[in-house]
């Protein structure tokens, strides 16, 4: 079994982990109802996506 001969420094460990951070989700706005929606998702309020109504919303 392979065992490391020396301890990795904090600098080296940090360099390796520099790409592990989570990125913020990008938010767009629905052109139909102007509510904030995550990009590439159907609008939860009006069901609008890419120029057409994909999900019918019932009036309550």
UniProtKB/TrEMBL annotation:
GO terms for biological process: translation. Gene3D superfamilies: Single helix bin (1.20.5.640). The keyword Ribosomal protein applies. GO terms for molecular function: structural constituent of ribosome. Signal peptide: none annotated. Keywords: Ribonucleoprotein, Ribosomal protein. The keyword Metal-binding does not apply. Pfam families: Ribosomal_L32p. GO terms for cellular component: large ribosomal subunit. It comes from the Bacteria. Residues 1-23 are annotated as: Disordered. Belongs to the bacterial ribosomal protein bL32 family. PANTHER family: 50S RIBOSOMAL PROTEIN L32, LARGE RIBOSOMAL SUBUNIT PROTEIN BL32. This is Large ribosomal subunit protein bL32. It comes from Allorhodopirellula solitaria.
């Amino acid at each position: 079994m392979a065992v490391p001969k020396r301890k990795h420094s904090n600098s080296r460990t940090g360099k390796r982990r520099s790409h592990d951070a989570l990125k913020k989700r990008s938010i767009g706005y629905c052109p139909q109802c102007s509510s904030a929606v995550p990009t590439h998702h159907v609008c939860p309020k009006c069901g609008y996506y890419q120029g057409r109504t994909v999900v019918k919303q019932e009036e309550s």
